[in-house]
Design brief:
Helix content: 10-25%
CATH topology: Metallo-beta-lactamase, Chain A
Largest sheet: 7 strands, mixed
Strand content: 15-25%
Shape: globular
CATH class: Alpha Beta
Order of helices and strands: EHEEHEHEHEEEEEHEHHEHEE
Number of strands: 14
CATH superfamily: Ribonuclease Z/Hydroxyacylglutathione hydrolase-like
Distance between the termini: 12 Å
Oligomer: single chain
Number of helices: 8
Number of domains: 1
Structural class: alpha/beta
Strand order of the largest sheet: 6-5-4-3-2-1-14
Length: about 300
Amino acid sequence: MARLTAIVLGAAAGGGFPQWNCRCPVCSLAWDGDPRVKPRTQTSLAVSADGARWTLLNAAPDLRAQLSATLALYPQALRASPVEAVVLTGAEVDQTAGLLTLRERQPFTVFATPETLGALADNPMFGVLAADVVTRRAVPLDRPFALPGGATAELFAVPGKVPLYLEAGAVETAAETGANVGAEIVAGDARLVFVPGAAAVTPALRERFARADAVLFDGTLFTDDEMIASGTGTKTGRRMGHMPMNGADGSLAALRGLGKRRIYIHINNTNPVLIDGSPERARVEAAGWEVAADGQDIVL
């Protein structure tokens, strides 16, 4: 029977942790070498049903370093990486820039919604992914498709918004379109759900999470006004398309009891859950959540 293995290649939000230009209280701990915090690269997962053929969920700008840090993804022969596919949940920079690392004429398939593939097509830089070796496959929502190695995937709409660089005029921050999706990966009886960005949790999402063995969910901010309060930004989390962890309408409350295993991922550099022993970390752990870290193995 297939067994689903996931490796957290990166657990941080865009910019990583510590962010290169930031001295917020949490980043300051990292720059100063405080052992209570661990650096994290930008969010991506590697998943496999057979341990030999791997699929990336999003391609972070840090992908080159992430591949070098992950023994299972080392090349097995001349120009023969075990990475055979990439599934994209959107077209944000921190979800797609790593594709440029994969430009060395290695055959693989990019699976994404038409909206995300359209954004790639509009950017001529992604033309370095030679069409004769890299296949771009548009997949419809809510319809399973096969991945290399025996797993299947399904993309589904998640309340969110278009990528930051495509914003124009009034921005709908909780639209359910192909611009912001989650991915459900199934191998045998094992089921993993990956949602790195969510502005809200709908009844349909709750149903999907309830049957999952592991849910990796948007942990960008602990409080909605976190970036404003820390002086690092001017937008709330929800304006950025990310619901906070805390509060009556936060993800801790919305996802209570759903999924056998719940893991926060895509964690912003300002989020105090990054600090081992912080009150915020204690709060999420008491609610049954884990905080993802680079290199973490998840075997289902």
